[in-house]
Amino acid sequence: ALRWLCALLLALPGAAGVCSQPPRFAFAEPVSAALQSYAPGAVVSYRCLPGYAKKAGESPDVTCLADSTWSRKSAFCTKKPCGPPSIENGDFHTQTDLLFGATVTFTCQVGYRLVGPPSAQCVVRNGEVSWDAVPTCEIVLCPPPPSIENGQLLDRNEKFTFGMAASYSCNKGLSLVGEATIFCSIGRGFQGVWSSPAPECKEVKCKDPQVKNGKKLSGFGTEHTYGNQVSFECNPGYSMKGSSVVTCDANSAWTPPLPTCDQMLCGRPPELPFGTPTTAVGDSSPLGTRVMYRCIPGYEGAPGRSSVITCQSDATWSAPDPHFCVPAQCPSPRVQYGRVSPGRYFYRTWDTVTFSCNPGYALQGPRSSTCGADSRWSPPLPQCKKVRPCPMPPQVANGNHNGQGQAGFTMGMSVRYTCNPGFYLVGNPTVSCRASGTWSQPRPRCEG
Q1: How far is CA 208 from the centre of its chain?
Q2: Please, which residues have CB within 8 angstroms of residue 1's CB and are 6 or more apart in sequence?
Q3: In whole angstroms, what separates CA 401 from the centre of its chain?
Q4: Which of 10, 22, 165, 291 suits 248 as a labelling partner, its CA being 20 to 30 A distant?
């Protein structure tokens, strides 16, 4: 009984010197059915699974080692290649390789459409690897080009494939409206469609175009049919609104509409800080208009500066000289035998000066004057006259004056007259000594 127990323990997995079931490989399987355990030195052989091939020089065997493990093995089977798939007028694309299990996608050349699945896989079929399905690329066909009235199709092909052209012409005297040539192209679902509708043949005549205040640059004939173009330019002094080129369209009308040539006008002349226009100018002025400015009171034109601006060919005013008006000046006042205060070399508008005379001279005129906007002193300058003594005041019959006993009389001095008893005074009772050395007139008189 002890002998049977020892034999049983040796047969258990993991027992010393005993290997469990052989390793599993994704690419191979044991040639014979696997046992529950293997004695040291036991060998298990493998064969490659379908889709795999044995590597040259590699053994497909594993051995049970004395430590109850199987000998290590590297991959001894490799994937079989399917080879490049063949698709006429197309190509394939892959992100890996072309070995067993790989997947490729297909595309067609321009003008062809894919018929069949868009991808294929390298699979085992009848013991060999091959692509499970390869589509085809068929050329795109367009339906016959449409016919047109009063015209004909120039191409007589039975089939129209991608890229082929169909051209049309019209009967004599008619214009072809649309595309004279249309092309077979690809539409939705990779179906063949024509690039544009068939053209029309119709009679098109546009009137001879004329633009007021302008002239033609091209298209000088008087008869114009579909597609004819005419270009224009405006006369000097006018600007164009609209397109300079128009085309005769299918409705016998010019498109875009004919342009207009509008007179070029300058806006209001610019405002200057110290000047105003000499003539009335509105909100618009034709080219060549000249505007002259005059300086406002207190200012005068500077020598060598222009006061004229002109409406230029670009409908803008020429730049005015901002410095042609300068503050007005009065000449330095001179009073012979007198003095001016304050004394300066020049005086600006609204400056005021006062006057005084030298000793022995008397002021005749205003004591002050102001520089006016017209560069003149206002009031006019005074004079300093030499002072002359007056003689004794004249006698008045039946009267007397209070200057009796006075040694002398000079300008500005005055005397007062009174009448004797029984008489009364007629006239101004006072007379003054004037700069001329004479007494003011008239003198009074005493009447009784």
Answers
A1: 38
A2: none
A3: 98
A4: 165
Structure confidence by residue, pLDDT tens digits, 39-61: 999 999 999 999 999 999 889 99
CA distance 248 to 230: 9
Residue 6 pLDDT more than 90?
no
Cα–chain-centroid distance for residue 160? 49
Domains contained in the chain, CATH given: 2-79 (2.10.70.10), 90-139 (2.10.70.10), 141-202 (2.10.70.10), 214-263 (2.10.70.10), 329-386 (2.10.70.10), 399-447 (2.10.70.10)
Of the candidates 329, 332, 333, the one whose C-alpha atom is nearest the C-alpha of residue 381 is 333
Cβ neighbours of residue 5 closer than 8 Å, sequence gap 6 or more:
none
What is the rounded distance in angstroms from the CA atom of residue 264 to the CA atom of residue 266?
Answer: 7
pTM above 0.90, yes or no: no
Distances in Å between the Cα of 426 and the Cα atoms of 285, 393, 397, 415, 422 are: 74, 17, 12, 16, 13
91-111 residue pLDDT tens: 999 998 999 999 999 999 999
Q: Which residues contact 404 (CB under 8 A, 6 or more apart)?
A: none
